[in-house]
Design goal:
Distance between the termini: 32 Å
Radius of gyration: 15 Å
Shape: globular
C-alpha cells in the first residue's frame, strides 16, 4: 500500500493542520475552505471507497470525516477544486464527469453538487455538453 498523501492547511486560529489521505481520498485539489468554528473542508480528485473522489471535513481538533464519496454515477466523479461554503454550512462544487451527455469517454459532462449541512448530497445541475458547457 502506498504511503498517504497529505494536504496541509491552516485552521482559523492559525494552527497547522494535515489531512492524511488513504481510503479517504487521494490527489487533493484546490484550496481548503474554513468555517467560523475552524473546521476545514476540501475535496480529493480520486480515492475513497469507489476511487472517484471525496469531500472531506477536518475538524479544528484534528478529527477527519468523509462527508461524501462519489460513486461515479449520477453524482459525478472527480471533483477537481475545493468547495465553497454558505452561511448555513452547505458546501458546493463541481465534478468533471457523470450527470448526462457523453463528454468523457461516455462518463457524462459534469455536475454541480451540494453537500447540505446535515450531510446529504444533491446534484443541482448535470451538464449536457451543449449550451450549458461541459467538464467544469
Amino acid at each position: 500500500m502506498a504511503p498517504p498523501i497529505a494536504a496541509a492547511g491552516t485552521t482559523a486560529n492559525g494552527q497547522a493542520a494535515a489531512l492524511s489521505l488513504k481510503c479517504d481520498g487521494t490527489q487533493p485539489y484546490g484550496t481548503l475552505t474554513s468555517d467560523k468554528p475552524g473546521n476545514l473542508y476540501g475535496t480529493t480528485f480520486k480515492g475513497g471507497s469507489t476511487n472517484f473522489g471525496t469531500v472531506l471535513k477536518l475538524a479544528a481538533d484534528g478529527t477527519e470525516t468523509v462527508l461524501h464519496t462519489f460513486t461515479g454515477g449520477s453524482d459525478g466523479p472527480f471533483p477537481k477544486a475545493g468547495v465553497i461554503i454558505d452561511k448555513a454550512g452547505n458546501l458546493f462544487r463541481t465534478t468533471l464527469g457523470s450527470g448526462v451527455g457523453n463528454c468523457i469517454n461516455g462518463n457524462g459532462c459534469g455536475t454541480v453538487f451540494e453537500i447540505a449541512a446535515e450531510g446529504t448530497e444533491t446534484v443541482l445541475h448535470a451538464f449536457t455538453g451543449g449550451k450549458d458547457g461541459a467538464t467544469p
